[in-house]
Amino acid sequence: MGERKAFIKDTFVYGLGNGLKKFIGLFLLPFYTRALTVGEFGMLETLGTAAALLGGFLSVGLDSACGYYYFKASDRQKADVLSTTFYLRLLSFLIIVPLLFFQKPLARLVFGDSDQSFLIVLLLLLVPVNLMMSEQSHLFRYFRQPWRYNIITVVKSLANIGIGITLVIVLKQGVQGAMWARIGSSLLVVVLAFGVFNFRKYSFRFSLGWARQLLKYGFPLIWAGIAAWIYNSSDRFFLLHYHDLREVGLYSIGAVFSQPVLLINMAVQMSFSVLFFKLYHKEENPNKPATRKMAVDIYSLYLSGSVILATTLSVFSDVLIPVVATPDYAGGARVVPMLVFSYIAAQSFQTMGPGISLSEKTWHFAWITGFTAILNIGLNFLLVPRMGFIGAGIATLISFVIYWIVKVYVASKYFPIKYPFFSILMFYVFGVGVSLLITTFEFHASGWMKFLAILLVTSCAFLFKLLKWEDVRMVWSKISRRET
């Protein structure tokens, strides 16, 4: 029960920080959606999507590699692992430089207009800064310092608001101003995290041996990351090709209102992986019964909370989006159910598949994500021309669920865990069905019917024995007493 309590505690603290970040970030949304057209908002989200692709390539899988070897290394070696990762991160700045000479061709490739080349420059500046920010943020996970993580998270969000409002609203800099706000706020986090908190944790020694191991572990994850980008984000480019930036904008606003699930995912990932690997390496029993039980308990708790939240977001998105944004964005509510349940599938294959990482068979990530990427491309070709952004949402949901099933099957070959698969599947499908019935098929449900839908889904979490009353009491105690 200790790990379960630690998981709830860490997830609550990380979730609080990420919740503040999302809440503060949403403060910008009404300003941006009124200052930018739906098409310009789609352009901004397209740049974010391109940054994710380039960042996935340049990261060389170091986030996962560093996390794995940090806990595997001896206490004396841990600082060398962190330092080697830090120096490898710095190389990403050098790799970006040659791309600056191709800004006009890249602008034509992304937007079909070379006049937007300066946006490509800003994109290329944002990527290495974000990689360094990610590297600094991960250190708070390794040392289990969630409150420090929360400090820099809130600082970044407030800086993004201040710079964003100044440049986009006051100085009318449009998409360029929003990009400068992202760069400036991320750079501030790097300076603050490294200069105030993290520099003492490095030995500042570069180890060629650790570099080889980190890159060997992480290199297959480059291709897995690119493939993951395809089924995560390439749909924006399909929408741009077959339709226009307005469709991208509607799809993106649906993604924005689905982010509370991503918030939980991030909090779970930051707490689960640390607790799991720590217990795994500490447990002396070679069968690891405590580790396996912890994995089942934590996932059941995550699935219950995330499906209830996803259903709530789905059934009320048609009310929330026009209020927070403008009525022009209201159509984006129709894609919310597909995206929120896609994100649950995404975290499910992260949490339920530790066997691949434990066995260091990271090449499995490459072929599984590659297969799913090909499937996603085919679905986008089939659905986007006919159904627009709704087709993109369906393609995303199907792809993520397939990835989830395949990865858990492969991972079980290396570290089998007895999950209650029937209960998990039935609960997930029920949540998807209720959300699609009310939202996607435009079933005109009254407010009380929406609350009834949420109550039914919540009841099913207890019916399938995925959620326990002691978990509810523990979370409520955490909230009411504000324990840390």
Automatic annotation (TrEMBL):
Keyword Transmembrane helix: yes
Domain of life (superkingdom): Bacteria
Membrane topology: Multi-pass membrane protein
A single cellular component GO annotation: plasma membrane
Name of the protein this chain belongs to: Polysaccharide biosynthesis protein
Chief subcellular location: membrane
Entries under Pfam families matching the protein: Polysacc_synt
Compartments in which it is found: Cell membrane
Transmembrane region(s): 12-32, 52-71, 86-104, 116-133, 154-171, 183-202, 214-231, 251-277, 298-317, 329-345, 365-383, 389-410, 422-441, 447-467
Protein keywords: Cell membrane, Membrane, Transmembrane, Transmembrane helix
